[in-house]
Amino acid sequence: MSAIPVGAPVPAVPRGAPLYPRAAFYYLLATVGAVAAFVPSYFSRLQENDAVRHAHGIVGFAWMLLLVTQAFLMRSRKVALHRRLGKAAYVLAPAFVISGLLIVRAMASGATGFEQHFGARLAWVDLLSVSTFGTCVYMAIRDRRQVQLHARWMTCTALLLLPPVFVRLEQALPFIHSFEQAMNVAFGLTELIIVLLLVGDFRQGQRRLPYRALLAVTAAQQVGFVMLDGVPGWAAFAYSLGHLG
């Protein structure tokens, strides 16, 4: 399919047809992948995790279930129910952001050997993730009457969760030899998925912000994770975050 020239009319989504008809399946696949990824570090060690991590995990799981359900409702053309259920975002999104920030604080505290080694760099990654998640939800709500933008902003909230899922799933692969390697592969896979979505938009003549912005954020996360290692100023800032209060 050839690209549509800039300025040409953008083909409309047929009335009643969902923008992403397979979105519910992909959201469900991401949810199942997340559960599998967090079995070793969370589900198999529930008693070792604190209330903040429990809250973050529960809210994150609820958010993914909301995405699955909302996509299914749109595919079933139950728009009124979709809108009513969407109000749950006003509770889930702030809870996810707040619990995420508390986890960033814990990660930056350097309480464990892993956190001492990677906490400052992961604080950068997680701060960008949490702030971008909140921004995407805000934009999705603002653009709720523009289905093309709304659907993409909501999809971005799911894509933000992919790097931590990928990095945990990769631990079982024989060719992954370090956490740094796993992180870079996870970012690369996420960036590839975003690029494929951008290509799909390009082929349909779409020039929209969400995926381009998310690709920039993901690249910034990866660059920061690599480049901030040993940077004294950032390490000091992360340490101060970890010891607030």
Describe this protein with a few key phrases.
245 residues; mainly alpha; globular; disordered N terminus
Would you kindly provide a written description of the structure presented here, covering whatever features stand out?
This protein has one domain (23-242). With 245 residues, it is an all-alpha fold. α5 (113-142) packs antiparallel against α6 and α8 (179-203) packs antiparallel against α9 (209-227). It is built from ten helices and no strands. The protein has helices spanning 23-37, 51-75, 79-86, 89-108, 113-142, 147-159, 162-169, 179-203, 209-227, 232-242. The N and C termini lie far apart (57 Å).
Helix content: over 70%
β-strand number: 0
What is the count of structural domains? Answer: 1
Structural class, by secondary structure, is mainly alpha
Distance between the termini: 57 Å
What is the number of helices? 10
Query: Runs with pLDDT <50, length 5+?
Result: 1-17
Describe the sheet with the most strands: none
What fraction strand? under 5%
Keywords: Membrane, Transmembrane, Transmembrane helix
Outline of the structure:
Keywords: Membrane, Transmembrane, Transmembrane helix. The chain is about 70% helix and about 0% strand.
Tell me the layout of helices and strands.
Blueprint: H1 23-37, H2 51-75, H3 79-86, H4 89-108, H5 113-142, H6 147-159, H7 162-169, H8 179-203, H9 209-227, H10 232-242
Helix pairs in contact: 1-2, 1-7, 2-3, 2-4, 4-5, 4-10, 5-6, 5-9, 5-10, 6-9, 7-8, 8-9
Keywords: Membrane, Transmembrane, Transmembrane helix
Transmembrane segments: 24-43, 55-76, 88-108, 120-141, 153-169, 181-202, 214-239
